[in-house]
Amino acid sequence: MDGDTHERGSKLPNGAREAEILALLQRAEGALTPGEVTERLDGELTYSSVVTILTRMHSKQLLTRTRRGRAYAYAPSTDEAGFAARRMRTVLEERSDRQAVLARFADGLSDSDAELLRQLLGPDSEAGR
């Protein structure tokens, strides 16, 4: 075992488990408690493993949580587009030459994506300020 999960089923890396739980929460109608997540995983993880993963994801600001009775209910902190943008920002922030990274990114855009980016960065947009 890897120390912080006690899988009943097949072993998955922590990142894959987090992605699985995030996808489950994104499909849910609202916030879910650890018990509800455990039920929807059909016994793949123990309750304590689910609590550990949800707590870790909350500390990474991937999830929000609100008190529901004696437990917390968890929900994604943003939508899929927001998570993709966050990953892009993280990669950009890890590089020392931001201009080179952005230039390479822009060079790789299709004409339609480049035009969309120009529109989004226009003078009247929030991003253009």
From TrEMBL:
Presence of the UniProt keyword DNA-binding in the record: yes
Keyword Transcription: yes
Protein name: CopY family transcriptional regulator
Family: Belongs to the BlaI transcriptional regulatory family.
Annotated GO MF terms: DNA binding
GO biological process: negative regulation of DNA-templated transcription
The entry's keywords: DNA-binding, Transcription, Transcription regulation
Pfam families per record: Penicillinase_R
